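hey all, quick one before standup. I had two proteins in the batch that finished overnight and I want to keep them in one place so we stop losing track of which output belongs to which input. First protein below, input sequence then structure tokens straight from the run.
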Amino acid sequence: MRFWDTSALVPLLVQEDATDAVRAQHRSDPTLIVAWTTLVECGSAIARAEHEQLLTREEATAAFARLDALARTWREVEPSDELREIARRLLRAHRLRAADALQLAAATLASERRPASLTVLTLDDRLETAAVREGFTVLVPGRGEAESPETSAPESESP
């Protein structure tokens, strides 16, 4: 089971450089756990691409239809006081935007506060860094698994 950040879901909806890698991850484990904000965040990405004329009206309509179909299959972490408290802590601990803090807080609750038990998929560098520091296994589609600070090799010193 994996937690999917919005940045990892968008390539399932619209063609991006990471689309093939993200589709492969989805095929390998089609169970999606997402934050309650994900539907709106994905919708925002599609609408932004349409407004910027990166998608035609027809392509945007098709992307919204894919989003609706995907949303019927995923499991959402709902908003709660506990989620908000975790997100506030994350904002102080890491250089995150509010939406990313909500995503990571949702992942924390989905893992039942055991980050090592859940893999987070993301294409967002800030969220990746914070998730690794929080103890999650992080998978960046197309690049692979991010190393946690505890498992990464020490940097070699220059002579």
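OK second protein, same deal, sequence then tokens:
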Amino acid sequence: MYAVIWRLLPGPAWVRVLLVLILVAAVLHSLATWIFPWVNTIVDNQEVTVGAP
């Protein structure tokens, strides 16, 4: 899968590395901005049970 993405990116290797870093940053930013807050509203983290020995 990563080889396909690498072949689809234009330019020499250093441009591809730069584009991959930009894409990874965009995905992480999207996750932190929209996905994680949305999941936090669904998951109730107040009902955590830790078993006592």
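Flagging for whoever picks this up: The first helix runs from residue 2 to 8. The radius of gyration is 19 Å.
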